[in-house]
Amino acid sequence: MAFKKLLASLGAGGASVETVLTEVNVVPGGVVQGEVRIQGGSVNQEIQGLSVGLQAKVEVEGGDQEYKQDIEFTKVRLGGAFEVQAGAVHIVPFGLEIPWETPVTMIDGQALRGMHIGVTTELAIARAVDSGDLDPINVHPLPAQKAILDAFVQLGFRFKNADLERGHIRGTRQKLPFYQEVEFFPPAQYQGLSQVELSFVADEHAMDVVLEMDKKPGLFSEGSDTFRSFQVGLHDYQGTDWAAYLNQWLAEVGSKRSWF
Length: 260
Prior knowledge:
By secondary structure, the protein is mainly β. It contains two helices and 19 strands. Strands 5, 6, 7, 11, 12 and 13 form a six-stranded antiparallel sheet that branches.
């Protein structure tokens, strides 16, 4: 499926730029393929630089405020300077690698609410930069990630929301300046939990799985957060009953509501 976006014309009589993604469905560690098409205007123009990258909309906490920020987390320059002839079409193909830590935006064909990730295009000309709109991509989970997500569904959890938080999860292999939290409503048997947040931090070999279990407040106690983490190999995850494995921790923390 092709996805197109047109950048604003670069000044009166200037070139216009269109980005076409040949496939918008990708997985972490994969490649999004596409091409940038530059349509020459009424005059020849010297293009000083052309690049594509990946951008995510991330929640940032600053003081007492919380706001959204667009963060470009990978960028590739497509060749050097070149000239676009008047009226001519200059096509630049590209393959943009998807970092292993890239957040998931789709589960079982359904888009996750709160996820905004896509390809950006940037053209530099005459000491000016023209940035295009975001060309969304669909990031599907790796098989090992899907095994964990399927286990939550098997245990009766319901998807609540997903967000991207600026910051780092300590003790993980995280390299990006943000991480994803996938939030679930727990089923009745985990009556002591108000919600569970799931994070994946992957590289080419394995991934850290981090659970934040939010415990309900008791009659004389405040609610509390309990964290658990474990490592899953990307190629040797099939031998584990993940629903049973997760239930051990979830039941320990949330099977009973603490009144004191």
